[in-house]
Design goal:
The complex is a heterodimer of chains A (295) and B (248). Chain A is an all-alpha fold and 295 residues long. Chain A contains 14 helices and no strands. Helix content of chain A is 71%, strand content 0%. In chain B, the strands form two sheets. A six-stranded mixed beta sheet of chain B has the order 5-6-7-3-8-9, sandwiched between helices. Chain B has a three-stranded antiparallel beta sheet with strand order 2-1-4. The chains are: A mainly alpha (295), B alpha/beta (248). Chains A and B meet through helix 1, helix 2 and helix 6 of A and strand 1, helix 1, helix 2, strand 4 and helix 3 of B.
Chain lengths: 295, 248
């Protein structure tokens, strides 16, 4: 019985997978890897997951005082706390994905070197873990926004989802690349840390897009907003900050707070994100053949 | 050998070389490029050199040879962890096994969690693990400690659990690397009995071990490797005698 079924299966070359497309078949293992990573991250820690609230809360406090009060940004931007935090949530989601995916292959070296499975499992489980960590931050954000009179429409909610998806796609693409590079050259981790440092400044997190628009040529501004990270932050502003009470001036629409041509820029950002994901998968696939012997 | 049986694995003219790299940073790589690529950035050696053999369903094959002869590399090529540089490797069905005891075990997880994680790594789905969980635990004989974190296990307990998960994963082609040598006498006996049972039920086995007497009881065919080259592919007794003659 078993042998007749087996005879129907073709001979295949082991060690080749369809990459990300194959992950649906490995759903069960993916879930277990996520559980494992969460368990291990907080071993011996009293506060555990609470740390993922504490860190952004402290960061928010520091930035709010420094940027909002000392630099006076809070006076020109109404609801600055929500404005700031909405952007920071996106950046911390991005940073978390980048750092974890980049290390994912190295951290799982014993598995990668001994047993074959689609190696994309590890970066993707890191993405999932990062999402688990961003959820409490979003909860805090929503509660804070509600306290300040947040009344979102359907379009605002969709923007929030789009922002998360865009960050996820973009960061996974980059993460796949860096995870593969990191196996060969450990310098990749330093490069990623550099990228994380820059990330928060190349997006309108502290300041408003109009400040960029007024100080650089038009095409530079276009390129700035087409970067998926800046676009996600702007989408998050549209989702959480714009629908706050008193943000939209009487007699104007929500759209007036958004940069012109945002629809097209969003399209470009999505295309860039998807292209990076494909590129990341390709690079990862090219390099994964030698993972086991390089580790 | 018996060609009427279903072909399970075929290695054709497989060569595998490894880099002996001494440096690991971009800086040194750039320096090496900038200085006109003097010398080899990395040296290579052939872990396997033009090796070919077929394995058919129901066979139990031992890979024999001294340290560094290419046995483990062969298993890793069959499992897909490594890819061949030249030649081709082909397999049929699900390939799994113990390339190293407890490679997938995590010390901070409990025995129970490790059973699920490892079984999933070996390719089982949730229903299959649920189904086999009790017999995995029973075979390992560590029921009392199944909810204890694995880092508190003795090395023997660790090994028992890992082996038990692997034999219950029931792959079409089962790879075993040097696991029979660990564990106490009764458990070793149990492992051997299990392997003989698998063999009798028609499962295909590929075994690497240095314990030649033990391997004679489990396997029927032996492949002798030395420095990555296939020297002999014959009946297990003949292969073991040949290897011992090489030794002397």
């Amino acid at each position: 019985m078993q042998s007749s079924v087996l005879a129907d299966q073709p001979l295949r070359a082991p060690g080749h997978s369809a990459g990300l497309l194959e992950l649906f078949r490995w759903w069960f293992l993916l879930r277990l890897l996520v559980k494992k990573e969460l368990r291990i991250r907080y071993r011996g820690s009293v506060l555990g997951m609470v740390w993922s609230y504490v860190k952004p809360a402290v960061q928010l406090g520091v930035y709010y005082v420094a940027m909002g009060h000392f630099l006076g940004l809070g006076r020109s931007i109404p609801g600055y706390v929500v404005y700031l935090f909405a952007g920071m949530v996106m950046i911390s989601f991005f940073n978390e994905i980048m750092l974890n995916t980049t290390r994912s292959i190295i951290f799982n070296a014993p598995l990668v070197g001994k047993i074959y499975m689609p190696r994309e499992l590890f970066p993707v489980s890191s993405l999932w873990v990062a999402f688990v960590h961003v959820v409490p931050q979003i909860v805090v954000l929503v509660v804070g926004a509600l306290l300040m009179g947040w009344r979102p429409g359907l379009l605002n909610i969709l923007a929030a989802i789009a922002a998360l998806v865009l960050v996820g796609i973009f960061a996974l693409g980059l993460g796949l690349m860096f995870a593969a590079f990191n196996v060969y050259f450990r310098d990749a981790e330093n490069l990623v840390e550099l990228l994380m440092m820059v990330a928060i400044w190349v997006s309108p997190v502290f300041y408003q897009w109009s400040m960029v628009a007024s100080s650089v040529p038009g095409w530079v501004f276009g390129a700035y907003l087409a970067n998926p990270l800046a676009m996600s932050v702007e989408l998050a502003h549209f989702a959480f900050w714009v629908p706050l009470e008193g943000v939209v001036a009487p007699g104007t629409s929500q759209a007036s707070l958004m940069p012109g041509g945002i629809g097209m820029l969003l399209g470009i950002a999505v295309v860039i994100g998807v292209a990076l994901l494909l590129c990341g998968q390709l690079v990862f696939h090219r390099l994964e053949g030698k993972f086991a012997q390089e580790l | 050998m018996d060609d009427s049986r279903l072909l399970m694995a075929r290695l054709a003219n497989v060569t595998k070389a490894f880099d002996l790299r001494h440096t690991r940073s971009i800086k040194e790589y750039v320096v090496w490029l900038a200085t006109g690529r003097k010398g080899d950035f990395s040296e290579t050696f052939n872990a396997l050199d033009d090796v070919s053999f077929d394995i058919h369903q129901g066979e139990s094959v031992a890979l024999l040879g001294f340290n560094g002869s290419g046995k483990s590399t062969t298993l890793k090529l069959v499992s897909g962890v490594l890819l061949p540089d030249e030649g081709s490797v082909q397999v049929r069905g699900r390939v799994a096994g113990l390339i190293e005891v407890g490679a997938g075990m995590h010390p901070d997880l409990t025995g129970r969690e490790n059973v699920y994680l490892n079984a999933a790594i070996l390719g089982l789905d949730e229903a299959e693990v649920d189904d086999r969980f009790d017999s995995i635990v029973e075979f390992s004989g560590i029921e009392k400690f199944i909810d204890t974190e694995v880092k508190f296990y003795s090395s023997g307990m660790y090994m028992r659990l890992a082996f038990s998960i692997a034999v219950h994963s029931n792959p079409d082609l089962f790879l075993v690397d040097e696991v029979l040598a660990v564990g106490d006498e009764p458990f070793q006996r149990k492992c051997i009995d299990k392997m003989l049972e698998l063999r009798a039920s028609g499962q295909t086995l590929m075994v690497v071990s240095h314990d030649l007497d033990l391997i004679k009881t489990v396997c029927e065919r032996g492949i002798v490797l030395r420095n990555g080259q296939l020297l002999l592919d014959a009946d297990i007794n003949e292969a073991v005698d040949y290897l011992r003659a090489l030794d002397g």
